[in-house]
């Protein structure tokens, strides 16, 4: 299967666009979730839009393997990584993904995942099943 074509076809069919720009060419900012010893990729600013709906703007951390910036993320990379399933609540989220409910970073992560899901659902609720096939 041509995954890039699948993503591009989904966007075209649903009047949606993705804009991807490197966050900063000169200074690599460490992600908030990273520890000192963590290796992390390059951050990109992404704008996901559809028709007249309010766009969803978010940061996308690319793969560590692409840290040198030789390969930029594409539409498939972005769509495949979106949260397309409702995390429901903190307890369900922790049970599903193995997080510790008592860890303060868990609550922050859950809120970020829930925010992403709500924005994705706001843009694509009518075609969420089709979007879920891009993984």
Give a brief outline of the structure:
This protein is 39% helix and 16% strand.
Please describe what this structure looks like:
This protein has 135 residues and is of the alpha+beta class. It has one domain (3-132). The chain is 39% helix and 16% strand. The chain has a three-stranded antiparallel β-sheet. Helix 1 (3-13) packs across helix 2. The mean pLDDT is 89.
Describe the protein's topology.
Blueprint: H1 3-13, E1 16-22, E2 43-50, E3 56-61, H2 75-81, H3 90-97, H4 104-124, H5 128-132
Antiparallel strand pairs: 1-2, 2-3
What brief labels describe this structure?
135 residues, alpha+beta, three-stranded antiparallel sheet, globular
What's the oligomerization state? Answer: single chain
Helix content: 25-40%
Average pLDDT metric:
89
* Mass-distribution shape: globular
Q: Could you list the spans in which at least 5 consecutive residues all have pLDDT below 50? A: none
In the residues, how many domains can be counted? 1
- First and last CA, distance: 12 Å
Structure class: alpha+beta
Elements, N to C (H/E): HEEEHHHH
The number of helices is 5
Per DSSP E runs of 2 or more residues, the count of β-strands stands at 3
Strand order of the largest sheet: 1-2-3
Task: Profile the largest sheet.
Answer: 3 strands, antiparallel
Beta content: 15-25%
Estimated radius of gyration:
16 Å
